[in-house]
Amino acid sequence: MSKKCALILAAGEGRRMKTSKPKVLAEVLFKPMIDWVTDAVKEGGVDEICVVTGHCYEELEAHLGGKYKTVVQQELLGTGHAVMQAKEFIKANTPGNILIINGDAPLIDAKTISTAFEYHESHKNAVTIISAKIDNPFGYGRVVRNKDKCLKKIVEENDATNAEKMINEVNSGAYWFNCSVLLEALEGIVEMHDKKQQAEYYLTDAVEVILEKNLNAVAYEAGNPDAVLGANDRAQLQLLNEIARKKVMREHLLNGVSIPCADGVMISPNVKIGNETEILPGTIIKGDTVIGENCVIGPNSFIENSVVGNGVTLNNTQCYSSTVKDNTSIGPFARVRPDCVIGEGVKAGNFVEFKNANIGDRTSVSHLTYIGDADFGSDINVGCGCATVNYNGKEKNRTKVDDHAFIGCSTYLVAPVSVGKNSYTAAGSVITEDVPDNALAIARSRQTIKKDWISKKKPYKWQK
Fold first, then answer.
1. 63 assigned to active site
2. What pTM was computed for the model?
3. Which domain holds residue 349?
4. Half-sphere exposure for 47 (CA within 13 Å, toward CB)
5. Which CATH number fits the domain that encloses residue 37?
C-alpha cells in the first residue's frame, strides 16, 4: 500500500457562526469539529497530518498542541489557495496519496475515509472525490455524471443550471489525490483563476484540470450521507449536534446500554459505557468518561472526564475529573469536584460536596456536608451538616480521618487536623486539635439554661 497523508482545511472565519474563535473549534457534542475530523482521519489509517490554519491561527494551533504540522493561510482566497499553502507538505509526501478534507465536517467517518482510499488506490485514480446523496442538496456542489455514469464535472450551486440543481449527489469536500498529480493541478488552478477572473482559487478546478488531461477522476459515493454535512451557522451546528447525539446514543443502545427516555440526554463520542447501565433523562456525559456495568446514572446528572465503576448510582449528581468506585451511591443533589477518589460501597446523600478528597470504602456521608482537601478512611460515619474547614485565608490544608471513626452532626474539622481510628466527635464540635485513636472529642461550650427568661421579656406576637 502506498504512502498516504492528509491535509485538513481549517482556516475559515465562521462569520455566520458569529464567533470570535476559528470556526472549526465550534463544538458538536462538546467536542470541537476539528477533533472529530482528526480522530476520523487517524482511525482511517492516516498518521501524517497537516492542518491549514488561518483566522485566529494562534488559538487553533494552541488547541492542536503541536500534534500536527500546520501552515497558515494568511489571505482566505478559497480552498485551492489553502491547498497551495501546503505545497512543501505535499512534495514531502510524493510519491503517495493525500486526503484533503474540511475541518468543519465532523460527521465524516473512518470507514468512509479508508474505503475511499482503497477504491482510489485499486483503480489507480488521479483523484477520487468522496460524494454522497442527500435529500436536500441546496448549497452543495453537484456531482454531474455523463450517460456512462462517469464523472463529468463538479458544479457549484451558483453556477448550476436548473437541471443540475435537481441532482442530489453532492461533493463532500473530501478528496483523495495522487500527490504528484495534485502538484501539477495546482498550477492549472492558477491559470484557470486568471482565465476566469475569479475572486478565489477553487479546489474543484483541480478536478477540472485533471479531467481535461484524461486522467482518472472518479466520484466515490459514500454509504454515509452525513459525511458531507458541515456547519456555517448555529442552526446548522444544532442540526449536526442532533444527528451526532442520536448516532452516539444508538451505538450505546446496541452495546447493551439502557436509555429508556432520551429527553435531555447528551453523550460525548469518546465516552465508554458498560452494558446494562441505565442512563436517565437530563443526563450529560462529557469528555473521556468511562462508566462501568449495571450503573444508574441520572436523572439530571452531569459527568465529565471521570471513571465510574460497576453498580454505581449517581442521582442528580455532578462529577468532574474524579474516580467513583464500585457499588457506590451518590445523590441526589451532590457534587464531586475534581481530583476525588470515592471508594467502593460509599454512600453520599443529598447536598454533599467532595473536593480533592479521598474517601475510603463503605464510608457514609449522610447529607448537607462538605469534605474538601481531605483523606477519609474506610467504614466512617459522617453525620449531617459537617464540614472540613480547609482554607485559612492564605492556603489550603488537609484533614485526615482514620478508619471506623464517627463524625457527629455539625462537626467542623479545622485543618490541618486528624481524627484517629475508632474515635468520635460530639455533635456541634469544632475540632482544632488532633484526636487520638479510640477517643471522644467534645469541642463546644457547656449549655446554659436561664429559667423564666421569657416571662421577663416582652413577648413576641406569636407567643400571645
1. no
2. 0.90
3. 257-441
4. 1
5. 3.90.550.10
